[in-house]
Input
Amino acid sequence: MSEQSERENVPADFPGAQILGAVSGAAPKLLLVRTASGGLATPTQSSEERANRWRKCEVLAGKVARAAMRSKAEKCSHMSEEAILALYLPIMQTKFNARYDESVWIVRKAASILSWPLPKSM
Output
């Protein structure tokens, strides 16, 4: 699949990220970049960066789905499907450096793959 088609295939519900920056000084600052048309805008991910993050999160969602199935069959058989999925939210953030909104997307995608209900916190 070409990079162009991958950028076009990023689902609309996949979160995008604003780029954060730091400027010295005591007063609050707003980070802006000049656009091609000469205007000012807050910096955001390029479509290539967003597609790359989506591909990684898509892979993680599949891994979470498989791991959740194993957990349900083994050590977490006493837990509800929602509770099992909820366990993976903090893991995505700490172990895989996913942002919170990406972690929620990953768990939602895993629930969709498994046809399991979402955790109540989502």
